[in-house]
Amino acid sequence: MYAWLADLVVLIHFAFILFVILGGLTVWRWRWMVWLHVPAAVWGALIIQFGWLCPLTPLENWLRVQAGEEGYAGGFISHYLLPLIYPGGLTPELRLILALLTVAVNLLIYGLLWRRRR
Length: 118
Known about the structure:
mainly alpha, 77% helix
């Protein structure tokens, strides 16, 4: 059960990352999503830039320990998704590039949305 919950946390984590990067697209359809997306995008950019630990990471690790696991071995989620969420060699320079890219993508989306509304 704990291993399954840990995998679920990874999926939620991955979905949150996608929402941070591309969530501005949801605002095109549902304007109220801006109130969810902007804080999420700011949080995501700050985590990337400063190397902060997302609260989902300790939860996932705790669940894995409870399941008797030591790492992320085994399973589709562990093999394919974890390297995307926890990339190795994440230098400060690369974090800055990822944070700026996150901000740039969202500024582009919101800029297009603003232009479309006008």
